[in-house]
Amino acid sequence: MPIDLASGACRADNVCLAGSTCTHSSLEGAKFHDVNLRGAEFVDVALTGARLSNLCLGDVTIADANYAGMRIEGILVTELLRVYRRQSAAPDAEPPGAA
Q: Is the pLDDT at 98 greater than 90, yes or no?
């Protein structure tokens, strides 16, 4: 059942929104605390300037993304990918996970 909400802030505490769909929506400046997003799908989403902490990213897949300025543990992701690709292309490089 679609629910039309007036533009502006709303608060949802202790609710189950499993299976919900947000289309052409803005959550700019929203805060999420103690939220379960297991199995969620994000397509064509802008996370520029977002801060993520205390996350479980097990089995997360990121594809077709712009990583400019993105950091993991303070390290630029573009630098991590550059080094990984260079080492993977080396003829004597060990396959990822080998050691």
A: no
